[in-house]
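Second attempt. The first submission of Sorbitol dehydrogenase had a stray character pasted in from the spreadsheet, which I only caught after the job came back as garbage. Lesson logged: always re-copy from the clean sequence file. Corrected sequence (191 aa) follows.
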Amino acid sequence: MSKISGASTVTIADIQTERVDFAIRNGFAHAGFVVPWKHGQSIDEKLQNAKDLAALAGQTQTARGILGEVDTVFECTGVEACTQAAIYATRAGGKVMLVGMGSPIQTLPISAAALREVDLVGVFRYADTYERAIELVGSGNSLLPDLEKLVTHRFCGLDGVQRAFEVAGKTKDEDDHLVLKVVVEMGGGEA
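This time the job returned cleanly.
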């Protein structure tokens, strides 16, 4: 959606190299950053880790040069460390879109957001989003990547539901293939 809406550079960050590579290879992002996971014990350590992560992400090479701070972050995990890093990675006057539904209580660097006027925007993805998404998908826009590639596994019928949920709960299947989206189609056995 960001590419279609005019974003000059879309960068994906994930802890899994395969997901980052998939997004770039299939036109969902221009650049990517694999997140090294560090756990801090104290709040100060956690916030420093988030600052370090934001700085490291800002060094990502894109077609337009070094990424630097970004205009908008779509934080889709809800993980406290990711939300913290999103605030630090966003330029002054930018936005952090809070899409992920994580822990209801988080320690966030509010002063870092407030002093740099970084807006934290909650996005509840059900209100007023489907109509626009369907419109964009049906538009035939040449900037839209092949969304079918996101569906990595298909199962058929009610008999396939349990297996579909088992696969959907993993990052890779038993054959070491990347799992992104799992679809159950009404019909026979496993597709």
